[in-house]
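User: Quick sanity check before I run a bigger batch. Here is a single chain. Can you write out its predicted 3D structure?
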Amino acid sequence: MSETTTSPAADGAGGTPTEVAAPHRYTAALAADIEARWQDFWDSAGTYEAPNPSGDLEGDAAQVARPKKFIMDMFPYPSGAGLHVGHPLGFIATDVFARHQRMTGHNVLHTLGFDAFGLPAEQYAVQTGTHPRTSTEANIVNMRRQLRRLGLGHDQRRSVETIDPAYYKWTQWIFLQIFNSWYDPEADAARPIDTLIAQFEAGRRPTPDGRPWAELSNAERAGVLGEYRLAYASDAPVNWCPGLGTVLANEEVTADGRSERGNYPVFKAKLRQWNMRITAYADRLLKGLDALDWPEAIKLQQRNWIGRSEGARVDFPVGDDKITVFTTRQDTLFGATYMVLAPEHELISGSEDGSGSIVPAAWPEGTHDVWTGGHATPGEAVAAYRKQAAAKSDVERQAEAKDKTGVFTGAYATNPVSGEQVPVFIADYVLMGYGTGAIMAVPAHDSRDFAFARAFELPMRCVVEPSDDRGTDPSTWDDAFGSYDAKIVNSSGAEISLDGLGVTEAKAKITEWLAAAGIGRGTVNFRLRDWLFSRQRYWGEPFPIVYDEDGVAHALPESMLPLELPEVEDYSPRTFDADDADTQPETPLSRNEGWVNVDLDLGDGAGVKRYRRETNTMPNWAGSCWYEMRYLDPNNDDALVDPGIEQYWMGPRDGQPAGGVDLYVGGAEHAVLHLLYARFWSKVLHDLGHVSSSEPFHKLYNQGMIQAFVYRDSRGIAVPAAEVEERDGAYYYQGEKVSRVLGKMGKSLKNAVTPDEICAEYGADTLRLYEMAMGPLDVSRPWDTRAVVGQYRLLQRLWRNVVDEATGEVTVVDDEPDEATLRALHKAIDGVTQDMENLRFNTAIAKVTELNNHLTKVGGPVSRTVAERLVLLVAPLAPHIAEELWRKLGHTDSVVHADFPVADPAYVVDETVTCVVQIKGKVRARLEVAPSISDADLEAAALAEPAVLAALGDAGIRKVIVRAPKLVNIVPA
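Assistant: Done. Predicted structure follows.
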């Protein structure tokens, strides 16, 4: 370096250049040099490589013998915009924790890969013609560069990318395990499909129509097995988005019925799609939460999403068919005066005009005008209403405040307990996604049913006696009455009576009667629906499935994996008029005829045959359902993961009965998407014997968000935040007053700050410290570039306490520190140790700052004993400067694997504490006493104090209240 350097913020002026005469001062330029050198060293030395107990990543046996710690971040998506300073918050936090764990004797696995399939790259390809792989790989290179600059201690040998065929070979393999499995209720676990076929072949399990298995055709057998497979294709109601040309999962649709990406209208449609039978695991997914160290808010979200409820299924005859409902209030069956089906229900969606098996050709005699919706026939009414409902989201359909809409189907069902004929409606407030898609409406005791009955002039019957003075005539009520603590009334029929029973007793009695009569049964229902697993896109994992001439799906043999994506000329699915619901998807893969239609020998004895490939691709969630397992054994070509390696890193152990990753850090927004899906895949793989852990992530921690101010002009358009000026409490952009609100950080909001900018101005260690010091890790906080300089100054003071800025020589001395410094040191060690273990990095930095300030205040050369321990305390937080100072202090080994300091308890406790002595509530003396002083000794010392004696004078003492070691309160006589 030259004798005079320029540091943009050397004096803390927030960017004003200042000439620095000291050639060895810690500046942004020196930080950049230090950081680049040590990053290169760590890479070349393999500093962060974590050895496996076996396999190609096997390493130092002594390191493997240490306690292990598997630490993970949620998969990042390689965005073309790169990182802004909000993105690395969690990455820095896990890095700090991982570094501390290494220094406390753990074999730490910490790496990072990229979840690289998905719609953004595909949309960019559509717009520019650039292959999604080209843009995605370029984005990964850029993000790797940005992350490396932060000094993240990742084992790069283990990093994976979901778009790598060597990776998605195993995603496809897992799909085939799920496809070739069924859930055996007796075993309460997944089992290979061959075990189910054996039951059919032996006659132990009857076929649906009773014919022997041998008499069924291949297509018929496939149809039967499809009802059991954990991965299956079916015609099901889906969220169809013509504007994107694809179907969407429920979680990808906004509350106002539009696509989360692109904001296009979403409609309900029936399409042939792949599904995962996650509902088979609903109970186990619920119970498994108890063993996990997760935030209660996330557990609650999953419990609510799974939505377990106990009740009964009841059959209502309607013509030659029946409507099956699920109800948790079977005790109110006598109060069911009409029924409602979801618009997508199979009994009314049988033909193009909306007619089906229960919809008559004409309105029955006496049909109320308000029931028909103004249509001439039931078929017309049903078809029109179904189209109307398809344009609404599930949230809109269930909104409590909206007017209830619906239409009569023209059909009547029979109430099985009363024998009454009740009209059957369709209405959008009933969803196929819960129960059976049909309800028995008891309007006297359900607010939504009450509102619907009022709107359509339907009868109401009170069957649960109100506890207030409203009486038992619902026509006089303002709303329904619901209670579980009431008496059943008006509920007697020819075969059963519930009158006079409490709700619990009535539910038990009617459930038993329904089962005996063969028209119902007690059951458990879940809100959770099977996972829609198809996407009409190009940029995703191809399904390892082909279809024969009969449309039967066949799994590709493992020897044909990976099935790689072919080249196509047009990457976009065919999109349509965004408002045209009556369209069908056309996928990019379907246009490559040479890839779709193939001659294959599947090794099943049938020889070479012509097959048609599946032209949908897997959703972007697929690759992230299992990536923690691939981190363990990333180069294994023969297995998903070696069993011994998986057992070492993720197997069950004390305190972790289900196994899993030791610490998983990421956003709370994935509570019911990625986290639920990954748990499902882990349980299937565990059941099939592929892994020892039944849960993927033992401990989950949700980091907060770094926010930034968004500035908008009079048109509501975001303006560049960096160019906004503050004057007298107002904000101006190019002379125009603008508004300011705290929000997300992002390129589109023109308020993004990149880590490259901060690293260039202050260094990566300063950025790391600032992000960790901003506040508790799990709380969102606003970014303030002007405040970054505070952590920069901390590092400059740390540097000056060890290095002479004029000569570059180390200034520490071998003298022992004084007692005050020893106490400050060991208190800092004790506090930082606890904070590190509990992810309280902001308070750990405060304790380091306090110690460093103490040394600065004392002045003079710092004792080597103190300087070395201070550097070790800083090492997890600011690893580059710590490594540099560690070497300057004479050490030849890396600070990364040095032992974290241990506090001496004798110095952690204060030597003395101040005890306040009060008389009549007024402070009369302050005593310096030992923290361990007894009540008796403290009382004696207080009463012997001259100031206390003078204040008491001749007055006697009525009472002495002692709260050792800090308070003595004397009450005079």
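Residues 1-19, 351-355 have pLDDT under 50 and may be disordered.

User: Great, the batch can go ahead then.
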